[in-house]
Design goal:
With about 170 residues, this protein is mainly α. The protein has six helices and no strands.
């Protein structure tokens, strides 16, 4: 995967807009589906406990709203407007895959394995990028320190770490 330069302000603006739009769409659809289901299948009276007995229809309306919203998001995510958001999302997925294998990767990196060092360099570089995009500055110094250690170790071994050489297939070895 190629590392892209993403403008933080554009990313934040688009992410916030998409989140607000998704939540708004979800709320409107949940209300609409709940109202329609209650109008079609709901009971009209109020029980002794003060309930209308339509809770299950409201829950079904929320479930339908989640399904419809998810289908719509899945359809529109290929639009160029979502490029920055999808890039960060894909990086986060790769981070999760690497994190699950991080102990084995670090173990091999300690034995000067080139691919392990490449994976770690990619991981820390892109983690730094995602943390910056998401305004997560608390741990960014620790990430920078780890990245520096990886490059120092690679330099000691005369390895060149070209991040363009990273592919997700490298993770299958761990």
């Amino acid at each position: 995967m190629k590392i892209l330069n993403i403008d933080k302000d554009t990313y934040r603006k688009k992410t916030n807009l998409v989140m607000v739009g998704f939540v708004g769409c979800l709320a409107v659809l949940a209300l609409a589906f709940g109202s329609i289901l209650i109008a079609l299948f709901g009971s009209e009276g109020i029980t002794e406990s003060g309930s209308t007995g339509n809770f299950h229809l409201n829950v079904l309306g929320v479930i339908l709203a989640v399904i419809v919203s998810s289908v719509v998001m899945n359809k529109v995510k290929s639009n160029p407007y979502f490029d920055e958001i999808m890039y960060a999302w894909q990086l986060k997925q790769i981070h999760n895959r690497i994190y699950r294998k991080l102990a084995k990767i670090k173990e091999k990196a300690a034995r000067n394995d080139h691919n392990s060092l490449l994976i770690l360099a990619f991981y820390y570089t892109t983690q730094q990028q995602v943390f910056t995009l998401d305004n997560n500055t608390l741990t960014i110094t620790a990430v920078q320190k780890s990245l520096n250690e990886v490059y120092e170790q690679a330099a000691e071994m005369n390895f060149t770490l070209d991040l363009d050489d990273f592919t997700v297939d490298l993770l299958d070895r761990y």
